Every structure is written in C-alpha cells, then in structure tokens.
Amino acid sequence: MGLSTHVLDTMHGCPASGMAVELYKLDGARATCIKTLTLNADGRNPDGLLLTSEQIEAGMYRLRFDVSGYFKARGVALPEPNFLTQVNLDFGIANPAQHYHVPLLVSPWSYSTYRGS
C-alpha cells in the first residue's frame, strides 16, 4: 500500500512535470520535512510511492506544492504577489494498511483535491 500523489496542470491540460513537492509529518504545531522531490513527466514522484507500506504510519501529514514556481517556470505571466504561491494539503492517515493517494488539480488561480485510489 503506501502514499502517492499525482499533479495535473488544468491550465495547460497536462501533468505538472517539474513541480517541486515536499512531504511533512505533522506533530501538533511542528512540521518535519521527510521528503522533497520534483515531479516527473507524468506529474508523479519519480521514485514511485512517497511512503511505502513499511514507512507509512497513522497520523497527520502535509503535502506542499510549489504552484507559483511551477507556473513561472512554464512562462506564465503571474501578478505579484501571486494568487497561489504554495498549496498546502494537510491530511490524516487513519489506516496505514490502506493505500492513500492524494491528487492535485491546479491552475494559477484554483486547485482541488480528493482521496484517490
């Protein structure tokens, strides 16, 4: 099982290749970065799972997506300050035996997410 993510750029209709992502483990107000990565051509972690079934634990996590950095790198003219700079998704893992997939659909002005399969 484990934890995975996938990011789609809804402005351009493609995976968000090259977007920087950070994964944090949350403990109350403390956030500890446990992984940093750059999404591959399919908008996914090039190493596969963010956390394997052996690594995943019950608790609170945060995925931080560098939205403005990604769109600036794509040459999109953004106002200063940008409407979205980073998208932080805080989510809980209740059952580490299940697979948790956290997709992000994003443009410079909006985003949505859900628990995928």
Keywords:
46% strand, 117 residues, mainly beta, single chain, Immunoglobulin-like
Q: Whole-number radius of gyration?
A: 14 Å
Low-confidence stretches: none
Count of beta strands: 8
What is the CATH superfamily classification?
Transthyretin/hydroxyisourate hydrolase domain
Largest β-sheet summary: 4 strands, mixed
Number of helical runs?
Answer: 1
How much beta, percentage-wise? Answer: over 45%
Structural class: mainly beta
Query: According to CATH, what is the topology?
Result: Immunoglobulin-like
CATH C-level class is: Mainly Beta
Describe this structure in words.
With 117 residues, the protein is mainly beta. Helix content is 6%, strand content 46%. It has one helix at 67-73; strands at residues 2-9, 14-15, 20-27, 30-38, 59-66, 86-93, 99-106, 111-113. The radius of gyration is 14 Å and the shape is globular.
In short:
This protein has 117 residues and is mainly beta. The protein has one domain: Immunoglobulin-like (Sandwich). The chain has 1 helix and 8 strands; from the N terminus they run E-E-E-E-E-H-E-E-E.
